[in-house]
Amino acid sequence: MLNNTVIFRDDEIESASESNGLLPSFPSVLFPDFENNQTLTTTSSNDCVMESFTIDNISKASWSVAKILEAEARIAQRAELAKDFKSRIDTWLESANKQDEDSISYISFLLEPYVKNEVSKLHKTKTLSLPTGIASLRKLQDKLEIVDADEALAYCEAQHPEAVIIKKELDKAVLKDLILKRTEPIPGVEAELGADKLYIKPLKIKVITS
Fold it and tell me: What stretches in the chain show pLDDT beneath 70?
């Protein structure tokens, strides 16, 4: 019997729960007044809102940017951890299933000729009932693979044009120009000018060495 076990190291478990509050956060060190005096409440829709807090100066704006960057960093770290765990689980699953998949493939290879022979003796059915289960023959879908599209297209255009599909598409760049710049309405098309959206990026600090 295979013993397939996924083992996680202690440091990985710690990184998964890194926001346990044991270390002070960057915003709490720079802006202790905001951290101590303001409370975050969570609504039923999981949106974080600040009670009685208005961003009206550079200190509050800086604190807000730091909080956003911290939250984004935690999200990225969790995503990386989840990706690593998923990769391990997928590897374990593939390894655990391999022996059974090989058995299914080999036994099916041995069984198929017998089932085909027995089914050929039956009328209007491709199903063989056995004491332990039912064995059926099913026709798989026909396969077609285009290995050289240019060569096949050139031949069909000359010999079998009915095999060539001419696809019409709308040019979105032209449509944007017509609607948004020339203000010409196009039936069946909706468009709107892109709004400004807030993006936060960390500062790039250059270290000057003598």
Answer: 1-24, 26-27, 29-52, 210
